[in-house]
Design a protein that fits this description.
Organism (chain A): Hibiscus sabdariffa
Number of strands of chain A: 11
Mean pLDDT of chain A: 86
Structural class of chain A: alpha+beta
Helix content of chain A: 10-25%
Family (chain A): Belongs to the peptidase S26 family. IMP2 subfamily.
Oligomer: homodimer
Order of helices and strands of chain A: HEHEHEEEEEHEEEE
Keywords (chain A): Hydrolase, Membrane, Mitochondrion, Mitochondrion inner membrane, Protease, Transmembrane, Transmembrane helix
Radius of gyration of chain A: 19 Å
Distance between the termini of chain A: 57 Å
Membrane topology (chain A): Single-pass membrane protein
Protein name (chain A): Mitochondrial inner membrane protease subunit 2
Number of helices of chain A: 4
Chain lengths: ~170, ~170
């Protein structure tokens, strides 16, 4: 075995690892940083601790939910912004298709194929209250765990606002 | 070399081919059938010829356009339906962000991050005239060629309707 054969073998292995990593990241799960304080205190609570002020939270985003699109009230999802396809947002699902969601001035009906999202930090969140219901086709994944910083590692739980949302059915299947 | 080794080697090769095919299909191009007559006569013209009536057109959808999202008026795109994330539609881009598009009753402004799509077969097409502007994040690819049936193989050209659309700029970059 000469050197060219070794180099080719290494190249093939690197390429295969690269393609498999890409596929896993697209189809199964990936790790992304959360920017901004719109989901505080769930992500980026910005307390006075050293870790919190130094770096953004890293979360695990699972893509298996995109097989069936079975989301529940209170799920935290990653989606492409309706107004800017280059940006991705992380927000919590407050309303599912068919729901009626109460905002300050209005009660909005969520049409088929859409969801209503809001950030946990209501005062500082650009969400469905600004850009309206989000088409489910824009959803890119669901956040299941916080992976960084170490003292806040854990699962991301569902939080629902029962007093603001009127659901058409108790089961969230569609 | 025993049989288990041969089987393992074949399994590895099949797995690698499968992953690479999936990645190519997602990142570069794929071949899809076109259903329905909403893009007639560009696709599925349903003439009396044998091949036209037997099967749907197959078209080549390129995904490289999703790197930069530089679309032009007249491009034919594949996108997830805003009202039903499980469905994909094939329509032509009539309006880009910032344009004013004239419908029968109204003149619609296309907001940032959205496009206005219509089928070539105006009488029989469910498009932006029904479900409004489509967020660009829902676009899944651009149709470049017809691959089946053989007598209509060729490139898919841009067709613009200058008299109905007022563009904010001549360059379609965003």
């Amino acid at each position: 075995m000469g050197t060219p054969s070794i180099l080719w073998s290494i190249t093939k292995k690197c390429f295969t690892v690269g393609v498999i990593t890409l596929t896993v990241s697209d189809l199964f799960a990936s790790i992304v940083p959360v920017r901004g304080a719109s989901m505080s205190p769930t992500f980026n609570p910005k307390t006075n601790s050293l870790f919190d002020s130094l770096s953004d939270d890293r979360v695990l985003v699972e893509k298996l939910c995109l097989r069936n699109y079975k989301f529940s009230h209170g799920d935290v999802i990653v989606f492409s912004s309706p107004n800017n396809h280059k940006e991705k947002h992380v927000k919590r699902i407050v309303g599912l298709p068919g729901d009626w969601v109460g905002t300050i001035y209005d009660v909005v009906h969520i049409p088929e194929g859409h969801c209503w999202v809001e950030g946990d930090n209501s005062a500082s969140s650009l969400d469905s209250r600004s850009f309206g219901p989000v088409p489910l086709g824009l959803v890119k994944g669901r956040v299941t765990h916080v992976l960084w910083p170490p003292h806040r590692v854990g699962t991301v739980d569902r939080k629902t606002s029962q007093n603001r949302v009127s659901s058409s059915s108790s089961a969230s299947k569609f």
